[in-house]
Structures are given as C-alpha cells and as structure tokens.
Structure prediction request, 720 residues.
Amino acid sequence: MAAVDPRVEEYARLLVERSLGVQPGWQVMVIATPLARPLVEEVVRQIARVGAWPLVRLSWVDTEQVAFETLWASEAPDGLLETMAPSEAQTRRDLDAWMMIQAAENTRAGSLLAPERRLALRKAYAEFNERRLRPGFPWVGCLYPTPAFAQDAGMTLADFEDFVYGACLLDWDAERDRMARHAERFDAAETVRIVGAGTDLTLSLDGRSGLVDDAHYNMPGGEFFYSPLEDSAEGVVEFSEFPAAYQGNVCEGVRLRFEAGEVVDASATGNEEFLLAALDTDEGARRLGELGIGCNPGIQRHTRNTLFDEKIDGTVHLAIGSGLAFVGGENRSAIHWDMVKELRSGGRIELDGEIVQENGRWVR
Amino acid sequence: MSDPRTEDYARLIVDCVQPEPGWNVLVRSQPLGKPLVQAVTRELARRGTRALVRLRFESAGGVFVREAPLELLRELPSIDRHEVETADSYIAIVAPENTREGADVPAERSGLLMAALREVQQPFLSDEKPWTGCYWPTEAVAQDAGMTLPEFEDFLFGAVLVDWDALAQDMQRIAERFDRAETVRLVGADTDLTFSLAGREGKVDALGANVPGGEVFYSPVEDSAEGVISFSEYPACYLGHEVTGVRFRFEGGRIVEASADADEEFLLGTLDTDEGARRLGEFGIGCNPGIQRHVKNTLFDEKIEGTVHLAIGTGFPQLGSTNRSAIHWDIVKDLRNGGRIELDGETVQENGAWRL
Prediction:
C-alpha cells in the first residue's frame, strides 16, 4: 500500500479534536463509503487514542443519510420506510457525536430512489436530525477526495486533493476571529439586501443571531450563517453563475422571486422540472431556511459540491427549506437546498442601507 | 453484468435464517462483498425484513483493535451491544481483501475483543436466534485456495448450490449411526485417537449456520480423548495464521503435548489462551460432495467429503458440551488415503468411503 498522504493525519486530527472534541467514553458515529478508507482509519485511530468508541457505518451510497441502503429502500414494503429499525433509532438517541464523510464513487448514484421513497426515509431520520441540530450536539460533515468529486470539479484527483486540503487545513482560530468581526455587523443589522446580476433581494435578520462555522459543523468551515425571518424575503435572486445541485440533480440558471418570504415564481434554464418538484415537497420548501456568507480563503472556485461551494470567499448562499433551529430558524421542511450566488463580479451586500461588501470584498 | 448464481446464493442465504416480516437482520460484510450484500439486502427487503448492513474494512476489528486502550476492548460500546441484542437474526458475508488481515493484532487484544463479543452473541452461538455465515468469492480467498477467481467462483457455487434435501437425508443416516456409538477411533497417518460420544447427540448441518453446510458434528466428552493425531495433510488456519504439521497428544481429554512444523509459537500460544483451549470442543465429519479439495478456509475445508475435523476450544452447549474457551479452532484431517473411522470397534468409513 502506498504511504498515506500526511495531510490525511492532520485532517483526521482536526475532525476528531476540533470539529467534534471527542471525549473519553464517547460513542462516535462515523459514516463513510469504502473509498474513504485512509481517512476513516486515521479517524478511528485518533478516536481510539482518545479512549472513545468509533461506530463506523460504511455504505456504497453516498447520500446525506446513508445508514439505510438505497437498495433496501427501493424494494421494502411502504410501511417499513417511514420509521427506522428500532435499534437504529436507539443508536441515534445514544450516540455522542456524528461524523459524515462524503466519499462518492459516483456523485449521481443517489438519484435513483423514487422521490416519495426518499421522502419517507427522510421522515424516518427526522427525529435524529432534530437532535443533531440542537445546540451543543457535536457533529461534522466533511469530504474525502475521490475521483468522482474531482471529475465534478473538473480537476485531476491530485489537484482536487490540493484543493480540499487547502480549504481544510487552515488556522481555524484565526479564521474564527476574522469571520466573527463580520458576523457582528450582521447580528446588529435588521435588513440584508443582496444586489447582483439579475438579483435584488431583501430579507430580515431582526432578532436572529448568526453562527460562525470555524470547522465545527462542516469541514471545511468558513461561513457564517443565519436563518432569516421566515416571512421577510422580498425580491428576486438569480443563481446564474453556478448550477444548483441537490442530491445528484443539477439545475442551471435557477431564478426565484419571493413575496412575503415565499417563493411565488421559480424558473430554471436547465432541469426546471426538478426545481419545481422540490419546491412542492411541502409548505416549508418555498421559504428560506438559511442565509450564509462564504468566507473560506482557500476556496476560490466552484466545484459542484455544496460543502465547498457555499464557502467560496465572496459568495452568499440561500437555502430553501428547513431552517436551522440552533440559530432560531422556525421553517420546517423535508428539504434543505443550498444555492450559491456569486457576488465577486458586480455584487454587493447592504446592511440597513449601508454597503458592507462589494465585489466580494469587505468594506470597513 | 452480474453472475446469475449470485441471486440463487442470496435466496439460499436468506432461506437459512428464515426471516419473518418486520425482523431486524444484521448483515455484516466487507466492501468487496458488494454484489452479494446487495442481493441479500434486496431479498430481505422483498420479504419485508429490515436489513442492518454493517460493513467493515477488516473482519477482525482493524485499526481500533490495534490502537484502543485495553479497557475499551473489554466491553462493547452500549450501542453495539444493544444492536446485537435486539437483532432477530444475523448474516455474516465474509469477503476479505487480504486473508491475513488481523494477523498483526496481538493475541491479548483479539482475545479481549472476542470475549466481549461472545457474551452478547450467545443467543446466536447457542442457536436461539438464527444466523448464518458465508463467503463471497474474492481474489484473496481464491489466492489462498490456489485458484484463479473464476475457478474459485465455480468451486464456491459448486459447494453451495447443491441438492440440500438429498444431502440432508444422507447425513441424517450417518448421524444416526454415530448417535448410537460410544467410542470413536480415528486411525490414519501418524494418528490413532479415541474419544467418547457417550450420551452426546450429533447435529446435521445441511443449511443453517454455515453456507455451505455439509457436515455432521458432535461435541465429544471433554475428558475422553486419548492418543495422537497428526494433521499432516493440511495446514491449520486460524486468525490469519497458517500452522503446518500440527500434532497433538491427548491424555484424559487434555492436550499434553503439541508441536508443529511451522508457526509452532502461535499454536502453543493459542493453547495457553485458557484452560478450555486444550480440550476438544468439536468432532465433525465432512460430507459435502461439492468439496473435494482443501482451500485453506475452514468453512469449506471442514466439509470436504472424506475428512474429519477436530476443534480445540469452546464446544456446543446445545450438543451437551461443557468445555468453554475464548477460542474455537477447527483443524481438518484427511482420511481418504489410508485412514479409517471405527465406532465401538467397527470400521464405518475407510479411505473416505462409507461402509454403513
């Protein structure tokens, strides 16, 4: 076997020590695919050294919630889908921390399951997701570089590895301090206005506080985010620069018009059908669950992977669907679809009428 | 294009545990087992059963077992414990990338892990809950067998996709003859061993806890083994080790002398695991007509038609055994070249052919 990339060890240490802060005696679920073996084994080693138990869950299908095999879900009787196996449910009540390592063999592999079955599975996971997103529960989502991700990013694997580690192996305390300064201004503001190509959208953060992700919830971190007031979004946003990808489906040129917080008009130049179906998932799917501001200096380009794209320095992202309860979000939906808006070429962010960012650069 | 035999194999495996709708079935395997794990998962789904698929890179525990503080190996995490305790059934699909994985784990560490597992797996070991273990053909298993992968696939499916009803009847007749006997004598190359089955009944393994099945087995009376047995034909394979030329001398049921031509150290270390490791836990008779050659894989080798096997270590309580140990090591003895089995002085098998 080839020597393990030394960056993997550093990456694993950040995940175990910083992102999760694993303590002796904890039971830590680690979800991955077999392709992530070098990282999984390094993570297991670090968890073992702390004196905690890793609960490794490998699956061939790389979706947000993998413990159910897609295959099983495509053939099992309807009645079994909407609840977890009792021991699975108990596992998720008992575990102390949760790590999800994306490591796709084929980034389109998850898209075969019929939408109603996918929805049923999400219902089965609702209880755990609620627990996971409560304040204080340690969890982290991350990625191990595979050829499939590199392919989506339009890179060789070696280049993509450099990209991933360049985004992840940062001085996160310094990043936290830098992001916290920007977040303070948003915390103090009521109205956010986002202006850019085909875009003029206002929304309210009144009474909401943001959270800085300094590599605690996502690795890489590098964003601060809010759940905007659910009925506040007004105007238009056009995601013309980057495709919007969700669970293996890619939509181009998404345009959303909001009135009183609700999407009243939606279109896309490619795969519009999927966009409209997603908006019809449930009542909450038409409202914003998140406004995030990308700040990761290691991420300058779009790679068709939300985990990285939403942190591109000089972009913002909006998620339709479920809000983030740990930052006060009240919107509930089975979906949470982040879409990234480029602001580096002619865009700006205004807070209560004052420009705080222009062309992706912060204004003092 | 998937091998159509995979679907037949998956149905057979699921038939072994006969799941009821709503059951929670643990399916343990490794990444290379993908085609069979997927077919079994589909089959379980069709029968309305939940599949809890647990894949591991190494069947023997991997990095955690090597690195964890010893006290963590002494107990299972509560989540794993609960999962096994509440499982209605358990299917193990072995699909190694390298059959020597785990060979570097110190015996102390693997022993602790096995001891922790044994307690929670007791309902399966004692057949209160149905379980089955089987192989998926991988390059590593083929390599150990000295075959190409396509050859090994033919071998495996030949051993597994047999007429199980007919074979079960044949084995039943053999078991009835042994059930009536008190003393078994095994004679062969450098071998003359007697032990007692008095009061013990055998079990026919057609399709159940092992796929392939194809053996009749007993737990001999613990203090009865006397004499010498030399496993000169085949290596004894256990936990990634391959010990050649194993020879045991028994007195009063206990191994009082042991030697090997290679890796003797591992053999002697294993015998010192605990008190029960020096006594017999099993005597089995291989009966699978699809298996004619040794492939360095106990699951298959112990069913070679015309062989017997003895296991040192833990016995089967459901077959009357009182021997307990952290180990159970099956070692196969070929009787097809000049060997014989006597029951109470009567030869019932000679050169591997039955004379019932």
